[in-house]
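Troubleshooting: if your tokenizer reports a length mismatch, compare your output against this known-good record of 279 residues.
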Amino acid sequence: MNKISFPKRLRRQRIIVYAVVIGLIVMVMFPFFWLLHMSVKPDQDIMSFPPKLLFKPTADHYLALWKTDFRRSFMNSAIVSVSTTLLSMVIGVPAAYALSRANFKSDKQLSLWILSSRMAPPIAFTIPFFLIYRYLDLLDTLPGLIIIYLTFNLSLVIWMMRTFFDGTPRSLEEAAWIDGASVWGSFLRIILPLSAPGLAATAIFCFLFSWNDFFFALILTRTQSMTAPVAVVNFMNYEGWEWGKIAAGGTMVMLPVVIFSLIVRKYLIRGLTAGAIKG
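Known-good structure output:
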């Protein structure tokens, strides 16, 4: 009797688990699907009640959106995000390797100082950055955004990559040194390839922070260097909210991140898992 009831109970538990997981996925993904759904709806059907699930899709909102200043804002976001990610990785990865391999007395103090830039709320840095940028004439410029994102991404790169470098056996480097490789050569040819999952995961987080940022882009830009998240807000005005363009803009801001994450999802999962089980 127990042998017969056990498989039934196990199947019932699996069904419950699957139902809960599917329900959570639907809850999480529903806003994204609804945004995409609204971006291809005609204007007269967007705010209709009850909502129309069957309609003739249209690309008018995307075409109209691309004829506005949103196109330049979208390119600004791409330039700033890619530049910040590349600079953060080029500067932060060697710094993380140096902190992982070097032994000195102020190691902990230096690590805490680096982490402090991520611990404080962004609003704590707003006024100092604004005053400095106004003095240096960096307001409403792409280099200004790249610099401020770089200051926050560097600490993220150093802390994440140091974990991966700490988990890499030093014996591999010592063997390379015996074979005649330099410190820089062993770092490029041995350590970096072994840390590829960590590099991918770190790069994704740097890109996401720069791409999705709204606060600093709103405070430090006006028109010339406006990014895509800020540009979407311009379609909310006193005359009325242009829901079609808002939905189309939100979808276009979301798609690059989704596509990029899907392309490197394997490295992202491996990188996050490797960092989680360290020690």
